[in-house]
Predict the 3D structure of the following.
Amino acid sequence: MSPEDTLRFGYRSLTGYPTRTLLMLLAMSIGVTAVVLLTSLGEGARQYVLDRFSALGSNMVIVLPGRSETTGGAPPMVGATARDLTLGDALALYRSSAVRNVAPLIVGTANIAYGGLRREVMILGTTAEMQPVRELEMAQGRFLPAGEAERASNVVVLGARVRRELFGNASALGEWVRIEDRRYRVIGILTDKGESLGADIGDSVFIPVASAQQLFDTEGLFRILVEARARESIPRAVAAAREIIRERHDGKDDVTVITQDAVLATFDRILTALTLAVGGIAAISLGVAGVLIMNVMLVAVSQRTTEIGLLKAVGASGGQILRLFLTEAAMLSLLGAALGIVLAYIGIGILGQMFPNFPLSPPNWALGAAVGISLVTGLVFGVMPARRAARLDPVQALARR
């Protein structure tokens, strides 16, 4: 029996029992749809988080006060050295040739008021270098003025949402707003950049770092954002930050320095593992579909006993009967996988319409894995009914015993 005859026999068997074929295709397609759709959601979540974190800037090194360490003997105790980062620490980082920009940062919340309107916002105290470090774009006016970081001035840059809610359609540039008990002149409006790892830039306002120190009565910085001159300069910038801060803190290594690439790599590993996990869970449904194929094909062998006996009577061997049933199982698996991929893309399209800002696309490996697993599942669970059909005695089969 030629391969063409085998395929033709399988096609006629599938079309000869449409209800049975439809049920098996449905079971297999549901499993493939689940695998492709869930891995698309996992991949979309991974890409969404990476895009958001990449939007923080490029070639960034972050210096945080404090360094967690394990100290003492048995039993171990978790301790932490905490010494504030100062504005002097931040400015000292310019001694390194690997550093392009340094943006000290103080974060707090306060009430901002204009006219009869008042709302609580996030106050970010920083310098002019924050604009290139965070790649902030201005909608109107200008960002914080360059100059001496230690000098306070009563100027403020508003996020887009803050401007919209306080001023409506009126112009905000040049107007005076009140933050707590201090007055600030609006010199710029930021574009609506959206949220960045939970911090909504549009719902924030920027003031000079020295003004923020006075407003919140603190000398300590929340963190220091450092922009390296190039991607290749990041290791030197990290080493310089540790060394310079250590010198200024009496030889104590009491800061934590992290790089943007390290954080991105960590997120990438975690979310890739999550995507594989949900894909694996969804693949279980393909196993269930395989069990259904096995059961239905066992019933089919019983129903087609006469047909099998006739094939053997005209000379078909047991191996040929085995190949006929395995081919039928493979065709069912591949057709079910194709139907499942179509359904998955329809679901992705619907979700894309509902959540346009969420990137949804299956990873490259998911489609191949879904088709491969469905094919293997169909063949594995098709072996038992195929072997039963191959072992039938032709005389008893023709007598339907």
